[in-house]
Amino acid sequence: MELVFLLEQVVNGLVLGGYYLLLALGLSLIFSVGGVVNLAHGAFYAIGAYVSLEVIKRFGFGSSIVVTPLLVGVIGILFERLLLRRFYKADPILSLLVTFGLAMVVEQGLRMVWGAAPLPSNMPAEFKGNVMLGEFLFSKYRLFILGFVLVVMTGIWLLLNKTSFGLVVKAGVQKPDMLAVLGVRLQPYMTSIVALGVSTAALGGVLFGPITTVHPAMGTEIMTVAFVVVVIGGLGSFWGVVLAAILVGVVRGITIHFQPTAGEASMYLLMFFVLMLFPRGLLGERIERFE
């Protein structure tokens, strides 16, 4: 029985890893391509969670999965064009300070509009309850999240590896000088990268709102974990971030099972040991602009 419960915690850890993946993938892409430390990334996750509350009230949960990322993606385009692109060639500390300030502004803005108290996000009725698979008991909604994140991950991988857009982005991460010689400007692609990144963060807010607390500081709280995942996975590596998100989620899930108070510390210990063995992260690529 103990083994069955442990395996259930592994599955819950995979769901948690999917949660981290939706935030860390966009954060990693923006940092790798633009060289910008976007501390406001978690703010888009929080915006997505709050916008989804309003969309769900009017159109239902299914519509929110589509509409919310699109709306937040438009905000991301404005964010990139009006603010972020000013800092691509500037001292990274400037982008860090500006995006940190923006994150604080968004957090206070959410308090002004929706209040400081946590708000409930109702789980769709069709996903309530559990599923028995042999001796295993799983939440229907968590299995839905796991499957949906897998679909999103596959879509992003196909975009980055099977399209001309993805080839330019990968070249921009690995050989930006070569793109400049060929006359390819990477800046226009950054708008799409930022829109994609903040849309996936907003999708995380939609999917995990029903099983977490929707409150103004939720974006700030998740940013530390997102950075840990990016550092463990390594800059410029899609599969590195995926592997890191799964590892962090599963390690935290199993640790909480045996020692509930040590869940937070487990991911930092994991990061320490990974960086001792792999200074660039698990699958980190050499990025010329940072070396």
Salient structural properties:
291 residues, mainly alpha, ABC transporter involved in vitamin B12 uptake, BtuC, two-stranded antiparallel sheet, 11 helices, 2 strands, 3% strand
For the record, the count of structural domains works out to 1
Strand order of the largest sheet: 1-2
Query: End-to-end distance, in Å?
Result: 51 Å
Structural class assignment = mainly alpha
Question: Level of helix content?
Answer: over 70%
- The oligomerization state is single chain
Corresponding CATH architecture: Orthogonal Bundle
Number of helices: 11
| CATH fold naming | ABC transporter involved in vitamin B12 uptake, BtuC
Would you identify the regions where 5 or more consecutive residues have pLDDT less than 50?
A: none
CATH top-level class: Mainly Alpha
What composes the largest sheet?
2 strands, antiparallel
Strand content: under 5%
Estimate the mean pLDDT confidence.
83
Count of extended strands: 2
Overall shape: globular
Rg is 19 Å
The string of secondary-structure elements, in order, is HHHHEEHHHHHHH
Provide a short characterization of the protein structure.
72% of the residues lie in helices and 3% in strands. It is mostly helical and 291 residues long. It starts with a helix and ends in a 14-residue tail after the last helix.
Description:
It is a single chain. With 291 residues, the protein is an all-alpha fold. It has a single domain (2-290), classed as ABC transporter involved in vitamin B12 uptake, BtuC (Orthogonal Bundle), CATH 1.10.3470. The protein is 72% helix and 3% strand. The chain is built from eleven helices and two strands; from the N terminus they run ααααββααααααα. It has helices at residues 2-34, 41-59, 61-82, 92-114, 140-161, 164-174, 176-181, 187-208, 218-233, 238-258, 263-277, and strands spanning 130-133, 136-139. It has a two-stranded antiparallel ribbon. Helix 2 (41-59) runs antiparallel to helix 3. The longest helix is centred in the N-terminal third of the chain and has 33 residues, at 2-34. The radius of gyration is 19 Å and the shape is globular. The mean pLDDT is 83.
